[in-house]
């Protein structure tokens, strides 16, 4: 398992969670019964950057907390046989939004940063929450993965 972190903001508070992200990746691999190792990139951005990404790629002109771009995005079926490419995709996390939401939700920055990473990771693994059934599956997996890693 490998994680590549790119910090495009001056605030480095989320950089300290790399070990937690690796733990999340290993637990997701175990829970989802993935056989291969994989690489994911996490890019920390500010609200203006993530708003621009959201506007350009999703046609939604507003700030969001996390956006993911899966390597296999748009394919009918997701093949995680990583023989040619072990890269899953990119997870963009807005640092200011992460910090703000941690305060608003009354939990730690670590909890929020790990939740956003897990959410983005599951998107890169082909999960989504576009309908109620898919949302239940994805959110249940988020809870299961984060259990024993961070408290609410």
Q: Into how many domains do the coordinates divide? A: 1
User: In CATH terms, what is the architecture?
Assistant: 3-Layer(aba) Sandwich
The CATH superfamily name is: Metalloproteases ("zincins"), catalytic domain
Q: DSSP helix count?
A: 5
Q: State the total count of DSSP E strands.
A: 4
CATH class: Alpha Beta
Please bin the fraction of helical residues: 40-55%
Mind explaining what this structure looks like?
α3 (95-105) packs across α4 (109-124). This protein is 45% helix and 17% strand. By secondary structure, it is α/β, with parallel strands linked by helices. The protein is built from five helices and four strands; from the N terminus they run βαβαββααα. The protein is globular and about 35 Å long. Strands 1-2-4-3 form a four-stranded mixed beta sheet.
Short description:
This protein is an alpha/beta fold and 152 residues long.
Layout of secondary structure:
Blueprint: E1 2-7, H1 18-31, E2 39-45, H2 47-58, E3 66-70, E4 87-94, H3 95-105, H4 109-124, H5 132-146
Give structural attributes:
45% helix, 152 residues, 4-stranded mixed sheet
């Amino acid at each position: 398992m490998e994680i590549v972190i790119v910090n495009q903001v001056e605030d480095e508070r989320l950089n300290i969670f790399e070990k937690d992200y690796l733990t999340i990746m290993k637990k997701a691999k175990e829970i989802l019964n993935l056989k291969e190792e994989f690489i994911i990139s996490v890019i920390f951005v500010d609200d203006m950057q993530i708003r621009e990404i959201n506007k350009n790629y999703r046609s939604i002109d507003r700030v969001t907390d996390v956006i993911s771009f899966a390597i296999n995005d748009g394919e009918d079926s997701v093949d995680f046989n990583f023989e040619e490419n072990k890269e899953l995709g990119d997870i963009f996390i807005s640092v200011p939004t992460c910090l703000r939401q941690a305060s608003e939700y009354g939990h730690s920055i670590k909890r929020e940063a790990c939740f956003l990473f897990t959410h983005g990771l599951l998107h890169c693994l082909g999960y989504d929450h576009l309908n109620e059934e898919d949302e239940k599956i994805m959110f249940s997996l988020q809870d299961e993965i984060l259990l024993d890693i961070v408290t609410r």
